Amino acid sequence: MISLHDICYLRLGCRDLDEMVHFGTRILGLELRERTATHAYLRGDNSVFNLCYIQGDASYDASAFALREYAHLQQAADELQALGIAVQWGDEAACAERHVDAFFEFIDPNENRIELVYRPHVTGVRYFPSRDAGITEFGHFGLHSRDIERDLAFWTQTMNARVSDRIGDGALLRIDPVHHKIALFSSDKTGVQHVNFQVESIDDVMRSWYFLQEQGVPIVFGPGRHPTSTAIFIYFLGPDKRVYEYSSGVKRITDEAGYVPRHFEMKPTSFCMWGARPNVKEFSE
Ligand SMILES: [Fe+2]
């Protein structure tokens, strides 16, 4: 059985690394911890990195999860291969590039590039933000899905994520008590759909709302509150055209055995109980 311990990092291709470093540090509020000619490693906690921007193919992305034991990683590779999914183990250089002890990558049924890793490195130095956005942790990410029932079956049956709630076709999945760490959104695309960082409080969400507007950053949804996870949120667009999110107050599901997922109707009020209207199609009808 594959047991995901936590989300780990995202590798995100980009055309202009300088532009993404500026956005990551001056807008998003991450710390730039390492920079090479082609890679920029940014973080919002004491991990070595949460996001790695890579100069080159802007459509490239990879989503990584950590497993607790090396034996779990080997077992996961066996299980995926038994299902006919090829796995590619990373060599020493690839592990060094990711700051992990071991990993393999595979392509999921939606053609999303997924990496499973063992021992992602953390630092003994606390996260020192370049802008005080109030970030407390790398919260979750969304993945596109071109066939939601196929992908939901993969993520729940093979990867053992649990459905916390559904909104229309979309699904919010947990791998620990946090309401969701993976969100599947029905679309015609592949890869990462949005990138979330948790912030400390509603004050941080609202401060950023004003700050982002002053900086001319397009707001795509919010501020608002999700009726599903109860989190207060704001979504905005990066220069890489990816959607980024701050949120605060995500619900934790502690009654794992007794919890029953809810199925919210596909209406804007299922994404925001305050009445905010999204202007990206994944969050509306
Ligand atoms: Fe989100």
UniProtKB/TrEMBL annotation:
Keyword field contains Oxidoreductase: yes
Source domain of life: Bacteria
The entry's keywords: Dioxygenase, Oxidoreductase
Example GO molecular function: dioxygenase activity
Keyword DNA-binding: no
Domain VOC: 6-119, 137-249
InterPro entries: Glyas_Bleomycin-R_OHBP_Dase, Glyas_Fos-R_dOase_dom, VOC_core
CDD domains xrefs: PpCmtC_N (cd08361)
Name of the featured protein: Glyoxalase/bleomycin resistance protein/dioxygenase superfamily protein 8
